[in-house]
Amino acid sequence: MRKLFTLLLVFGLVAFVSSDLMAQAAEPTGFQVLKKNFIDGDWRFMAVVLICLILGLAFCIERIITLNLATTNTDKLLARIDERLLDNDIEGAKEVAKSTPGPTASVLYEGLRQHAGGADAVEKAIVSYGSVQMGLLERGLVWISLFIAIAPMLGFMGTVIGMIQAFQRIEDVGDLSPSVVAGGIKVALLTTVFGLIVAIILQIFYNYIVNKIDGIVNKMEDASIALVDMMSTRNSFGK
To answer: Could you tell me if 223 and 170 lie in one domain?
Structure first.
């Protein structure tokens, strides 16, 4: 996890610094314009906003990879477990669930482990361990939410400081001409724009991740109900 964050941070900073050396086109590209505007803003806030983007993307990528690996074909898994239950092979059913990766299989395994206690014990085990798996699926979301909230706040802080600088220039020069206040106002607007851009990007990933988690949880609940029904039909309790 830490290695992923470090690699993404280093990659982002290196790509940002070396982009001018790699540019060959006569006209500036969209990325070059974006980078120029980034530099024109207050670097103290722009750098922190960039770090928020890199770290936020690192958490998003880690969650997406983890959730994709956690996705299980529940229909196929339940069919394999049902085959073992038809043969009264509880241990074989547990082995199938144990050898299958993903939170759904882990929850089913915990339910099968409590088969001797009856339907109530199985349901209690499924609910309890399902809560544990839910927490594991949502791990890291709080950090993504933090970066989504911090990025625009840093932009707004840069806006306030830029406006203060603009009024300070007016006070020092004693003139209200556009050239006097343009620099401070530009910094104010650019920091706000980049803060909002970062928040929008991370929000899109966040919503995708939450939707992915909801899908996994729904499949987990459906599979748990199906398991209890199968065990009741096959009379697999108390064996």
So the answer is: no
The answer, yes or no, to whether residue 87 has pLDDT greater than 90, is no
Q: Provide the b/e sequence for 108-134 (b: ≥16 CB within 10 Å).
A: bbbbbbbbeeebebbbebbeebbeebe
Q: Is residue 6 part of a domain?
A: no
Output the pLDDT for position 13.
Answer: 47
Number of structural domains in the chain: 2
User: Is there a single domain that holds both residue 89 and residue 59?
Assistant: no
Residue 51 to residue 40: CA distance in whole angstroms? 17
Q: Is 73 helix (H, G, I), strand (E, B) or coil?
A: coil
**What pTM did the predictor assign?**
0.76
Residues 6+ apart with CB under 8 A from 98: 105, 109
**Both 55 and 108 in a single domain?**
no
* Domain containing residue 118: 72-137+219-233
CB 8 within 8 A of CB 54: yes
Structure-block tokens of residue 224:
């748990």
Cα angle, residue 72 at apex, residues 71 and 74 outer, rounded to 5°: 135
